[in-house]
Amino acid sequence: MTEDRRRAPLSSELAQRVVDLIAPTISHNINVMDEHGTIIACMDPSRVGSLHHGAQRVIAERRSVLVTVPEPGTSDRPGANEPLVIDGELRGVVGVTGNPREVEDLARVVALTVQLLIAQEYEQDAVSRRHTEGRDLVAALSSGTTRSDDARARLTASGLPAPWSLALWASASPRPGGGVAPPQLAEAAAAKVNANSGRRAAVLHGALWIIGTGRLPAADSLELPRDSRHTRTPPTDDVDALMAHAEESRALCRYAGLIPSIERPGPWSREIAVSVAHLSRRTLTRMTARTAPLSAAQRRTVAAMASSVSMREAADSVFVHRNTLLQRVDRIREETGLDVRRPEDLTTVHMCLYAEAALGVSPIVPG
């Protein structure tokens, strides 16, 4: 049981909702009393707020109490009164009005029903609270203005100890303009994640975000589409690194094409994607003009060279002879004016291909 649930008194609003839910199913009046014996919910509104002496006996003696003849001057009525135990704690009393011997068994059933319904409401409230915490946490970490100590305090308050990881999920289809859109069932997935106290999830900035400790859930367990776009960060104990990852992920949300698809695994540079995500559309358009003449084979060549340590390895990764690869390299230089054998030129062409992906001209090309 959480500290909040242990300290918080039984809510009269919640108790009345439960009474109103049960009342139509039985022909007897139901009362719910708090831990002091005060009636906080009843089918007779005039009794709410009055002290129930039978309930006080239940609390003092921690057992069921039958009221056969009410004490003079009290608001008590004949009936059966049962302890209301939630998470192992005596939180109040449930009373059913009527002939004590006739309603005794019914009172036990009603008390158990009230107990289960209130426990269920508490759990729903906890999930709702974690949902709000998740949204606030993602907003704070990705804002770029939150201080490190404030971020750590939020993580601690949310019950998320280090090391932390961050995952981002988006739809395969971007919004008009290229920004990310949440995958189908993103809200349901967030609710499912927030039911686990070790993680927080939120749909924000057009994507589903998950922050937590340990191994984060996979697409199948979240029931997200298999063609969703997805990226996640390695675990870190450094809150500043976590905030950097969150700020980078928010930048990636500007252009869905920069986030790799689960169905198209391959080399992907987070650093290049994030760098391109911070550029203006005008700059991206200028960059794409440089690589527009390249063929699909030439694009694969660039991607292969960017993810290989030698020309031989690059040639093998695209299943061509080394001489064929060199011919493609020469042709790329003729088309772009850049020699991808030079590291700086290779980086430039590679970034131009990421710019194409950002604008939706072409997907990121796997090596």
Radius of gyration: 31 Å
What structural category arises from helix and sheet content? alpha+beta
Main beta sheet: strand number and arrangement? 5 strands, antiparallel
SSE series: HHEEHEEEHHEHEEHEHHHHHHH
Question: Explain this structure to me?
Answer:
There is one protein chain. With 367 residues, the protein is α+β, with helices and mostly antiparallel strands. Helices cover 47% and strands 14% of the residues. It has 14 helices and nine strands. The protein has a five-stranded antiparallel sheet with strand order 2-1-5-4-3, sandwiched between helices. Strands 7-8-6-9 form a four-stranded antiparallel sheet, sandwiched between helices. Strand 1 and strand 2 (39-42) form a beta hairpin. Helix 2 (12-22) packs across helix 4 and helix 10 crosses helix 14. The chain is rod-shaped, with a radius of gyration of 31 Å. Mean pLDDT is 89; it is low at 1-7.
Blueprint of the fold:
Layout: H1 3-7, H2 12-22, E1 30-33, E2 39-42, H3 53-61, E3 65-67, E4 79-86, E5 89-97, H4 100-142, H5 148-157, E6 164-170, H6 186-194, E7 199-204, E8 207-213, H7 219-222, E9 229-232, H8 239-252, H9 270-277, H10 281-291, H11 296-306, H12 311-317, H13 322-336, H14 343-358
Antiparallel strand pairs: 1-2, 1-5, 3-4, 4-5, 6-8, 6-9, 7-8
Summarize the model shown.
The chain has 367 residues and is an alpha+beta fold. Helix content is 47%, strand content 14%.
Structural key phrases:
four-stranded antiparallel β-sheet; 9 strands; alpha+beta; rod-shaped; 367 residues; 14 helices
